[in-house]
Amino acid sequence: MAASSLASRAVASLSPSISTGASRDDAGSSSVVGFHKRSSAFTGRRVRISSGHGSSAAHGRRSCVVAATAAPVKESPPKIADIELVTREEGLELYEDMILGRCFEDMCAQMYYRSKMFGFVHLYNGQEAVSTGFVKALKKDDYICSTYRDHVHALSKGVPARQVMSELFGKATGCCRGQGGSMHMFSKEHRLLGGFAFIGEGIPVATGAAFNTKYSREVLKDLSVDAVTLAFFGDGTCNNGQFFECLNMAALWKLPIVYVVENNLWAIGMDHFRATSVPEIWKKGEAFGMPGVHVDGMDVLKVREVAKEAIARARRGDGPTLVECETYRYRGHSLADPDELRKPEQKNKYAVRDPIAAFKKYLLENGLASEADLKAIEKKIDEIVEDAVEFADASPLPPRSQLLENVFADPRGFGIGPDGKYRCEDPAFTAGTAEV
Amino acid sequence: MAQKVLVPCSSSSSCGKVQFSPSRVHTQAIAFGGELSQSSSRKNKSLALKAVAAKGETSAPVTAKSGHEILLFDALREGLEEEMARDPTVCVMGEDVGHYGGSYKVTKGLAEKFGDLRVLDTPICENSFTGMGIGAAMTGLRTVVEGMNMGFLLLAYNQISNNAGMLHYTSGGQFKIPVVIRGPGGVGKQLGAEHSQRLESYFQSVPGLQMVACSTPYNAKGLMKAAIRSDNPVILYEHVLLYNLKERIPDEEYVLCLEEAELVRPGKDITILTYSRMRHFVLQAAKTLVERGYDPEIIDIRSLKPFDLFTIGNSIKKTHKVLIVEECMRTGGIGASLRAAIVDNFWDFLDGRPECLSSQDVPTPYAATLEDATVVQPAQIIVKVEQMLQGLI
Predict the structure, then answer these.
(1) Range B218-238 average pLDDT
(2) Domains in chain A, start-ordered, CATH in brackets?
(3) pTM here?
């Protein structure tokens, strides 16, 4: 088994201390220990942890094209840096976001089994730390691009729960007017580029958004544009051609993008180790000349540290980063998945590492929040999700006239009919009864 | 004869301010490699030509003194260059489009003029760079993606179908994808099966895509400009053997209408619908047919998706007979769809079934004799038209 090779976590990382460096076998204990270690060193709000930052100057100013190579494992002695882990406000924000993700997804499961939503619904339970850790480190103008497991990414980015729930119910008030569904969440306002059903097909789109940033700065000379793009995808996608092709292009042109792998070890029923010749996905960054970082994806603070650094690196213009988040989904691949292949031992191992429980413990132990604060947040989120369901229930279904409306941005694309007019000018067209 | 109606263009973006030229009327043509001479363009009052032309617009006829001679690939380049100069968000990406100038020289000189980022040499990863072009278009740029050969775009089918075609819809109209996907396709001269594909049949069913095929330097430039200005994802089909076609085109700026067909030769006996290289074969056959006393009406449909049913319908209402001549395969080709559309819409005006001459359902062979037998030849067109007009079929 590949487990032994994972034991040596030679992490070419931005901050090696951030990664647990532990193998999967004892990962269960080490990250909890890691939490404790950090919290015991916690004095007030500042904590000293060693950080092996490679000199960003060295990375950034090399003249060759592939300048951003992964930092070598054995570097010069790490510098000590003060890192403020999280303030109370930030902590509460992170907690609230994770609770929102969890609560929303649980509600989705309920609604699905009550036949309020249909089709393929893929839930995010257990992976909240990745979405929260990364998306909450972004600015409003930054882009994210997801897969079919996109509800929580949408919520973290700011798409209102009402709009997401309506979309799932297939109502006209959904963020995509009911035309997308669970796997196609889009929001122009919140810069969510999708929602893709085929794995891998969102990665080039994200790469294109990053290309746009570079283009805006270098061709259009608009230096106010500094949007970073995050591409979220899973372990199964990392065996797909589009993944490698985009890593290559992003590194080649130093695009401001972070590729976030949510490695939950399973692609439906395909064990990551059965599908992948080299299971350490973070290592593949180095093959394309970008840093490959492994992080404990069940620990929102660790994810956030890595996220902040990778995003800052991209924003500086130093190029892309590949971040592998070790995480786990508590539910099946989708609500239709009987989830029979995963062994109870593995599930339990990750169940005790629940990111929300761990973070709650952290907040309480470090005096950043009281039980009452957290209860209040949970109650607030409950209400938000209930309200979202009520709103979605009460919303109208899309009328037939909506059928043809968004096929073309320019509806003249429906062509010229037998009467000489553009078909979209036909009155029957707007009633949705025109034949095209 | 139905009363003709000129309906103004509903939007000014592509047809409005610039000079809008009605169809050129070609009385002679040489299939390829030669010059296309033109009579002065005329507004044919007995036939409604431009369904949606802006009222009162005509163009000055191109005489021997005005305009400039140009080869088709250069006309494409001119159109692209003009659009890139006009709008800084227009950019090109593809293999060898930059430093190499394009494998068919359509982007020659553009990288020097506009820079490496605007004319981007990509690695060989069609699916990903097409997707990248789509992501860039979603977020504000107008990308022109070149497939070095149209066949290579099969590798990008995922992105073209799911993202270019469908993303505007699945996002509920939030994101538009103003991307132009173009490249040379069609059967060449012994290029082998994989370089001789006709992708118009493969992409035509994808909802959300618009498709146009250029066939002369004049419409190549006009359609390139229109496609770039369109907010829809447009696939522009060029033909590998037409790049050296020479024609005199106007000096003034012009943009053609993406959805319109082009009346190449008015007639009254039969409607021949064609596009791309087959237009020139049809014109070559027409010389013989005219000598024999027939009067075919030849329409270059140009817009492969959607069809310009107005122009086509008016013609069928006049002639009552239709022959489609295409390079696409017989199965599931453009001709197949066009026949269905004609039967659906103009059944009452037909004297007989709409006929179709298409390529064989064969991977294009390498050997010259076999390759010639794969595609439609002018001799076959002559035979077919005569059969139809003599009532033999």
Answers:
(1) 98
(2) 88-394 (3.40.50.970)
(3) 0.84
